[in-house]
User: Fold this.
Amino acid sequence: MADVLLEGVWKVYRDGYEVVALRDINLFVEGGEFVAVMGPSGSGKTTLLNVISGLDRPTRGRVLVRGMDLTAMGEDELARFRLSSIGIVFQFYNLLPEMTCAENVALPLIARGLNVRAAIEEALRMLEKVGLADRAHITPDRLSGGEQQRCAVVRALATSPSLILADEPTGNLDSRSKREVMELLRNVNEDGVTVIVVTHDPEVASYSRRVIRLRDGSIVEDRAK
Amino acid sequence: MRVNIRAVIFCSWRFFRSWRRQGILVTVMVAGSIALLVFSNGMINSLIEDNLNRALGTSIPHVLVEDPGICSEMPNCYERVMLVGFLRKGSETIPITLIGLDPVREELKPEDGGLTLSDSLCEELGLRRGGEVTLITPNGEIRARVVGTYNSSLALDPRTILTTLNYCKSELGIEPNVAVIKLKDPERADEVVKDLRERGYRAKSWKELAKNLLQVIEGDKVYASILSATIAAVVGLSILNITLMMVESRKREIGVLKSVGLTTTEIFLIYSGVSLVQALIGYALGMIVALAGSRVLSTVTVDLGTFTMRVSAKIGPVDALYGFIFALLVSLAASAFSSLRAARVKPAEVMRFG
Assistant:
């Protein structure tokens, strides 16, 4: 079964004038794939990722993730589906500044029903694996960019989703942090998790086994390496 | 969709802990408004109670019976003379109400051998203690001496003249014509009157006797309530405004919560939890300030020339409840507002840029 299936997906923004962000996208991503989505700014990369995650709805077409039609789901259903099946990593980390690194990681676990103490313990175990054990109890504003992004990746992985969506995950990182984050995503993928990364960076794309290029909202290249 | 209360409490507590500056601002505003509301209500209570107390039991008896014979079968019942007449000094003639009572048994103790006038009536007629005046009653005219004065603030009608039963009998030839009954609980007056009427007596309660005064007080209450509600509305809107700014600055957090997998209901409950705790702390602080203010105020006396006024703010359980409801309403409105905002937040838009 395909992990991600897009059928005739269009996304049109109407804000005074019309902008076509996605144009008749048909995409099939199998479970366990590592896909890089590339293209110039404004080509629709982030919109594509948002549509796959259910954070944005397509204007037309169907989006299926693990066989579930996201376009037929309500907002709360989508939220719950993300909680169980999708992990999202953003360019600007989007950690909650009110919580420590460990609490940020524990949040999706608590949302899934784990008690707070068990969730924090699990978060600490996961942070230890990525070398953040000593940073676990401090708030994001005191972490470096690389540490914040690793923490965000661990949060995305906390509920063991089958799909990780990363939007320019290394866009704000130095080269060392970039490698650390990409290694982390590669390891996750090797464990069978499907990873889709949006990037401008050929070095980041080199971690993937398939590259999709977008231009003006259309797929212009879909190449397996 | 099932709500995960554990996640709601977890986030509410973290947010409450972190949003110190805005939290303190909201809490202080709630506390200030509660203190203001409860304290002003307390002052209104005192004003009304003071007005009633001043009149009740003195110029307005709890129960008035037009048959002094009732006193042989009722406790705390006092015979009185009550009649209308005139007082003349020189060319000035003023209508008055004469009350003759037993100074031994009653709380009011006019001196024997003459009339006790209010200080304002004395001033009006240019009289002093020891001065003489003509008292005109249905039984005729006599020259009477002013043997005492009382503070006009103690009477509803400063043209009430007090004297003793003894003086009424010996100088005016008037026997007691009414009886007044003093009740432990003045609120029972209507009940007692009903019972007396069933037994054939013509009786009136203080609520009937002071109908005009009560109407004035009710009118005062309406104005006071409007004032109180205006204060509440202004303060409530200010608090909502702060909440609006707070939620606007939290759009990104709402987006993150949605992207992680929390539902709109859970996000609403998170914000409700934070505002509820802030409102309850504000309420507790506000009540402490109001009670302390009431205590301080009770020591203050104001000299108004003719009489000294003791200022007070009596805060009762109803005022505390009113404040509590206000705090809850503000918290609910703030939560409803944040929930509406949260529902409209599009995570894809708010989280795109750092």
In short: Chain A has seven helices and ten strands. The helical segments of chain A are 45-53, 75-85, 101-111, 116-129, 145-157, 175-190, 202-205. Chain A touches chain B at residues 46-47, 50, 53, 55-56, 75-77, 79-80, 82-84, 88, 90-99, 103, 107-108, 110-113, 115-116, 155, 159, 172 (CB under 8 Å).
